[in-house]
């Protein structure tokens, strides 16, 4: 009788090779997306300018509120408030709180059938691409607002170095949660042709609950409860809180863990919806 | 054949747009709901701040809500009429503008009527409701000047914000990919205009009063309505001159639009 071990070894080796080539595929997709976004230079400059104007208006609002409250409001002093604003402006583009209908458009045009036939997973491939996009926007659209914030009023630095590695993990989770939610909204296109209406509603709802205008911590109790019952604070408020040191240590780790929980739940939901969508797909002609 | 007058032609055009939007009921009401939500969400910011403090930029909640509502009504009106101009970069990229240029109607009017969006009126509802909720509590002496200001402010505001949209539209011809530049004063102006002008830091206050007169769309006239003094650089009496500032914004818009259209070079689309 032949020993089964060599066969097993071969299987393991093939599996390793496969994994490596899949990782490489997704990496290439991410790099391609990074480069796609780097083409529109003027758009980047325009985005930075506009986000700066908005940043100064938002700083004005928070300063006025904080000075009315007598120096601190919900744990924010002027410097922490300005850090909150400029970190928010920096993360806005990478975390992508805006609308995105690329997949929905492929659904209505029928190109999605080709996507399903590709040797990569639909969700994973777009996730990889979205991370590539986010990496580029983190550099191009993220750094300038931080520099403006540092030059004008100075940024608050967290009291512990752990804020930085934890902040990076939090940011990765925030981008991934944002992606999965946008992916889900796009999948609505399998059921209705008018996905734009849903995308519009999504953008409107996400902004305030993510902490885009004022920190979620400013909300009255009942509204804060509603906000934290959604994954939206995990997309902007949480990475800002962790990176700026508004929460530290185990409290920060717990926040990141809750992000991870949201991400796993949402990925599961997206899997289910994608599976249902694929079964609904009717391809007409070649 | 009887010639259609321009007004008649536009009445027919806009009528057809409205009917086509009402044809898809679900989609229409979803869009209206989104539009209302935009207004509510913007007000949420003011509300959240007043959950923590009782005075914001020298105004209480009712007074801030009046400023917000007046600005919001002006912006909503401007958005209904001119919001369509945001799509000019798409027209340019797809080469669809040439078709409009050869038609015997002004380009601006054609673009405005091309996709007249009724749903944007949803936002107006929020402003109107807030006005009617806060006015009784404000205890205003309803003199002729108060009523005049209450009526004319949303209209002047619409003119000013409309001018921002047209200025942006003209600049799109130069920017194309950089279209987001214009959001700084169109949507940034809309945002700044809804706030008590006294909260804005000085450079922003000056920018949105004397270059893009957003504080004239609500804050300054509201100070006159409520009989309050203004902060540095923004004396309340400036509010009487809102129509003059609207003319200035209109002049900017006219210049930008003319320059943009003159610069336009078709690619034979």
Written overview of the protein:
The complex is a heterodimer of chains A (286) and B (269). Chain A has 286 residues and is mainly alpha-helical. Chain A has one domain (24-280). Helices cover 74% and strands 0% of the residues of chain A. The longest helix of chain A has 33 residues, at 5-37. The model of chain A has no long low-confidence stretch (mean pLDDT 88). Chain B is an all-alpha fold and 269 residues long. Chain B has one domain (6-263). Chain B has twelve helices and no strands. Chain B has helices at residues 6-23, 25-50, 61-82, 88-94, 97-102, 107-114, 121-138, 144-175, 183-194, 202-211, 219-226, 242-263. The longest helix of chain B is centred in the middle third of the chain and has 32 residues, at 144-175. Classes of the chains: A mainly alpha (286), B mainly alpha (269). Chains A and B meet through helix 2 and helix 8 of A and helix 2 and helix 9 of B.
Largest interface: A-B, 38 and 43 residues
Question: How far do the termini of chain B sit from each other?
Answer: 31 Å
Low-confidence stretches of chain B: none
What is the number of helices of chain A?
11
Gyration radius over CA of chain A: 22 Å
User: Can you count the beta strands of chain B?
Assistant: 0
Structural class of chain A: mainly alpha
Helix content of chain B: over 70%
Strand content of chain B: under 5%
Sheet of most strands of chain B: none
Looking at how many chains there are and whether they match, the oligomeric state comes to heterodimer
| Principal-axes shape call of chain B | globular
- Can you summarize the main beta sheet of chain A? none
Low-confidence stretches of chain A: none
Mean pLDDT score of chain A, rounded?
Answer: 88
- Helix share, percent of chain A: over 70%
Number of strands of chain A: 0
Please tally the helical runs of chain B, counting DSSP H or I stretches of 4 or more residues: 12
- What structural class do you assign from the helix and strand content of chain B? mainly alpha
Q: Per DSSP, what share of the residues of chain A sits in E-state strands of 2 or more residues? A: under 5%
The overall number of domains of chain A is: 1
